[in-house]
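A brief tutorial aside. Many learners find it easier to grasp structure tokens once they have seen a single protein encoded end to end. The record that follows does exactly this for MBL fold metallo-hydrolase. Read the sequence first, then the structure, and try to relate runs of similar tokens to stretches of the chain.
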Amino acid sequence: MQESLEVPIEAVTLAPGVALAQNWFALRALDDASLAIGEPAYHQCNWSYLLSDCEESLLWDTGSGRRSIAPVVARYGQPRVTAFPSHMHFDHLGGIGDFETVMLADLPILRALEADGVVSPPERMFLGAYEGLTAPRFSVTRWIGPGETLEVGARRFSIVHTPGHSPDSVSLWEAERGRLYAADLLYCGELYAQTPGASLQAYAATLRDLLAWLPKDVEILGAHGQQGPDGHDAPRLSYGDAQDALSVIEAIIAAGPHDGERRINSRMTVSYAAPSFSG
């Protein structure tokens, strides 16, 4: 284990109302059926979401895998649990092996990974080598395409293809609660548009599309967060944050290919590289 990837949990400050579980996970109840599950002692400060109704739960992203998220899901979720990773990067697939029922976005780039009923992303999509990780192998129980509706009990989620950070990224839109579960498209901290497969043009196009139909009072929940003035908490962003991100990304594109990092606002920066200007 690379020590620099974790800090002692005793050094972590949690915001009021955020509870500690398994001496690793931070829990924030968004409502009585929605639980944000963070990993504040891990350097990427992952956040996954357990979304439940009736006898069913959806686990949106499966954590970093530094610790198993399964005991938390078993305690707070419903008997029937489906895991749904937002994309194939290692920090979203870490706990995938602990779940029998797995859903995946029905995109050509992901369908191409399936062989003999098993999916295993290549390193260019997994990106786990620098943390000494190898890609998991898992079976997909259900494929669901962009525009389709995912039912979790009586809850309804629309699958939205949101490329930019990666070509296989998807988000969930829950109209009833006015929430966009945005995964790595938007979150508090450093947005990555410099990794393999990232595209600034796709990032901008995705944000333009979202801003055209999302309500102005949307709550955007990201997949990473940094410690705020009150401690670690679920990363919540707004319509205005999406506008800020689009404005800065468009300015970066207009400047032409180069490597760099730009501040978006007080809660976000974006890192980018010359290759991400194409595509």
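Self-check: The chain has a mean pLDDT of 96. If you spotted this yourself, you are ready for the next section.
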